[in-house]
Amino acid sequence: MISWRKHYKRGLLAITLLLTTTASVHAQDGDPKNGEKLFKAQCAACHALDKQMVGPALGGVVERLKTEQNLDIDWLRSWIKDNEALRASGDKYANEVYEKFNKTPMTPFPNLSDKDIDDILAYTTNPPAPEPAAAAEGGASQADTIAALEEARKQSDNSKILLISLGFIAALLLWLLLRLRQLVKLSQSQELAELDQTRIHSIGDFYSKYKLVGQGLLGLLALFAFYGVWNWTMDIGVYKGYKPEQPIYFSHKIHAGDNKIDCQLCHSSAKYGKVSEIPSMNVCMNCHRNISEYNGAYLEPGKDKAFYDGEIQKIYAATGWDPESQSYKNKPQPVEWVRIHNMPDFVYFNHAQHVVAGEQAILNSHNKKNPNDQIDVVCKACHGQVDTMNVVSMANDFTMGWCIECHRTTEVDMNNGYNKEYFQNLHDKLKKQYPKSEGKITVDAIGGLECGKCHY
């Protein structure tokens, strides 16, 4: 009888242990390596293992749910495949999670099989160790050792070359010293004293002897000085190539180039307004609310992932965004951007007039004049290939002459609906006025060179 009770207690203990470890056994049955691939493809946009993003941190989620909520892996499968249905069934914890994360529903994944989910959970429970980095580090260490030995050998060779050079210089100095002694003795001779009487001893003597040559050189020097001053005055206010450092690093190559973000998504007023404004930080947060770290393949030379992640954190600090609570709970800080393109106050320039009315004419003219620098967006005609710039710089002179030359060479499309109707009575007059144009009318022919167009 005693033996039966002992075996009964052992059986109960085994059943209890089995029930409490069911979730971990399921997680261990999965393939963490496959789970890592699935996690990065399906989950990494909103979740991380070690920190909260849009959703909670998922490291050890299986054990955590078992301990805190007494929920097993079947609940996780139901939540991942269709969390909306799970909430609709009245599941208490499913609705608590929904409320806690600002009522943001998680994307359902009905396409994931139970095996796929087990693999993902196995990855969150036991993330696989990185690929054998030790061997790579060892190889790198061996390579470093070889490089260090090679560098030491080069330094030894350099030391020998330096000693030989110093010896040569010492010999040269000794030879010069001997020659100087000979010259001193020679200077004391009678013949040299007589010869010295015929030599020029001052600048005044030299100028008197070569007066005409001196005046010619002075005139030439004055001419070069005037030319230099003239060029300097012509460069006043011209800042081509200017690219100041901004308080938050923003790479147009990553955003407009790699990610193909349209210019007017951020600079929205360029199309229908006079000024192309600097985007507000709320525009940045439209994307970066859910992008808290940089996972792109491109890294600018000298910068790493940690640098880009730090710049994203500056956006959060400027807007007062708290990524932990997913809310604007902190005090926002203004960003002091450094302006790059800035027309003088006496110049009138309307972006809409060029981006909308002159878009096709500017594109055609630029691509015709620059066959090796074709553009697909009208903005690039003035601002250059911005989608290739890590730091935006001023691509052109933006001088009055530069604008006038553009007006003189950009052909107006006289066949579009507006121009055809508005200038219908001027066509013949323009053809007579510009006979060499062969019917092609440029911007200057329709008032593009009138002072009042650009100056108040």
UniProtKB/TrEMBL annotation:
Gene3D superfamilies, alphabetized: Cytochrome c-like domain, Cytochrome C3
Domain Cytochrome c: 30-128
Highest taxon, organism lineage: Bacteria
Classification via InterPro entries: Cyt_c-like_dom, Cyt_c-like_dom_sf, Multihaem_cyt_sf
Entry keyword annotation includes Heme: yes
Pfam families xrefs: Cytochrom_C (PF00034)
SUPFAM superfamilies linked to this entry: Cytochrome c, Multiheme cytochromes
GO molecular function: electron transfer activity; heme binding; metal ion binding
Signal peptide positions on this chain: 1-27
Membrane-spanning segments: 161-178, 212-230
Keywords annotated in UniProt: Heme, Iron, Membrane, Metal-binding, Signal, Transmembrane, Transmembrane helix
Keyword check for Transmembrane: yes
Name of the protein in question: C-type cytochrome
Lineage: Bacteria, Pseudomonadati, Bacteroidota, Flavobacteriia, Flavobacteriales
